[in-house]
Write a structure and sequence with these properties.
- Belongs to the transferase hexapeptide repeat family. LpxD subfamily.
- Keywords: Acyltransferase, Lipid A biosynthesis, Lipid biosynthesis, Lipid metabolism, Repeat, Transferase.
- This is UDP-3-O-acylglucosamine N-acyltransferase.
- This protein has 5 helices and 37 strands.
- By secondary structure, it is of the alpha/beta class.
- It folds into 3 domains: 94 residues, MurE/MurF, N-terminal domain (Udp-n-acetylmuramoylalanyl-d-glutamate--2,6- Diaminopimelate Ligase, Chain: A, domain 1); 214 residues, UDP N-Acetylglucosamine Acyltransferase, domain 1, CATH 2.160.10; 32 residues.
- The chain has a 12-stranded mixed β-sheet with strand order 6-8-11-14-17-22-25-28-31-34-36-37, covered by helices on one side.
Length: 351
């Protein structure tokens, strides 16, 4: 079990120790309301300030705005950091890396075709894995139980493929790619043509390219291109239950959140965020640093550096004005009805 002292946590987070408190050895991480004396926690949102005052955490990472000796908070060691959430993530990573034991080698139940290029002393292939011919696997990569790697796939260094992942033929994973359980990379794109009253399959002969440090969530699917490549750019993070269609191109450091879907040939710039249950119709461009808030739909090209809301997606200020106007409709209808009664009364008196 890994143990950290205050000096090590300060060094790891780049913070400043404000108060030593009663902390001795830290062995875990937890939320403010659940942490004990051997845990690190963090105050990342002012909504949790009361939890902070009452927490039993051994160490709390706090932002610069918090007083050095807040009233009521007497037991925790306090470390000031620029961004508590990011600093907390560094501590979590330290504990996770210690818990994950990389054990190189090939499990006896794995089926690895002849000619697969890898160093068994530097790669971990777990139980029930199937790896077809022509595959290349870089050093430090781990392939989880029950995964299937189809022929001529290229997997870079230090990748982590969790259990039951499927990577279809000829797809490319660069370095430090993470695939959560059940992810499918390179399934056929959804392409059909109506011929003589029947939907005929259009062959999908392209590939998927995941660049360095891409992460794909559980049960998410990324379709191979009809021809060419479906691309997810460096550092982009895809959540669980996301559908990426064929020939989509996602830029660098994008965030695609749960249950979102991108239709074929959608192009995203860099640092685009698509919140939960957002969607994009095909053959459009969403430019750099655009943000689609939850359930927004991109139905046409979207400018960058703008937050969008609604269906179809509009700049958030426009959509909020529309919603405010809709909220006033019941009152306006009542007012119109009252005015109509007065008009009818006037008409009756004149007649």
């Amino acid at each position: 079990m890994i143990k950290l002292n205050l000096d090590e946590i300060v060094s790891l987070t780049g913070g400043r120790l404000l108060r030593a408190g009663q902390a001795e050895e830290i062995t875990g991480v937890a939320s403010l309301d659940e942490a004990g004396s051997t845990d690190v926690s963090f105050l990342g949102n002012e909504k949790y300030y009361q939890d902070f005052l009452q927490t039993a955490a051994g160490v709390v990472l706090i932002p610069p705005a918090v007083p050095e000796n807040p009233d009521g908070q007497t037991t925790s060691a306090l470390i000031e950091v620029e961004n508590p959430s990011v600093a907390f993530g560094l501590v979590v990573k330290k504990f996770v890396s210690a818990q994950r034991k990389f054990q190189p080698g090939v499990h006896p139940s794995a089926i690895v075709a002849e000619g697969v290029q890898f160093d068994p002393e530097k790669v971990s292939i777990q139980a029930g894995v199937i790896i077809e011919s022509g595959v290349r696997i870089g050093a430090g990569t781990e392939i989880g139980a029950g995964s299937v790697i189809c022929h001529d796939v290229s997997i870079g260094e230090n990748c982590l493929l969790h259990a039951n992942v499927t990577v279809r033929e000829r797809c490319i994973l660069q370095n430090e790619v993470v695939l959560q359980p059940g992810a499918v990379i390179g399934s056929d794109g959804y392409g059909y043509a109506l011929v003589d009253g029947r939907h005929e399959t259009i062959d999908q002969v392209g590939i998927v390219l995941l660049e360095d440090r891409v992460e794909v969530g559980a049960n998410s699917t990324i379709d191979r291109a009809r021809f060419g490549k479906t691309v997810v750019g460096e550092g982009s993070k895809i959540d669980n239950l996301v559908q990426i269609g064929h020939n989509v191109r996602i830029g660098k450091h994008c965030l695609i959140v749960a249950q979102s879907g991108l239709a074929g040939s959608t192009h995203l710039g860099d640092y685009v965020t698509m919140a939960a249950q957002t969607g994009a119709v095909g053959h459009l461009k969403i430019h750099d640093r655009a943000v689609l808030s939850a359930r927004a739909v991109a139905s046409k090209d979207m400018k960058g550096d703008t937050v969008y809301m609604g269906m179809p997606g509009r700049p958030i200020q426009e959509e909020q004005k529309k919603k405010a106007a809709v909220a006033r409709l019941p009152k306006l209808i009542s007012q119109v009805k009252e005015l109509q009664k007065r008009v009818d009364a006037l008409d009756s008196s004149e007649s």
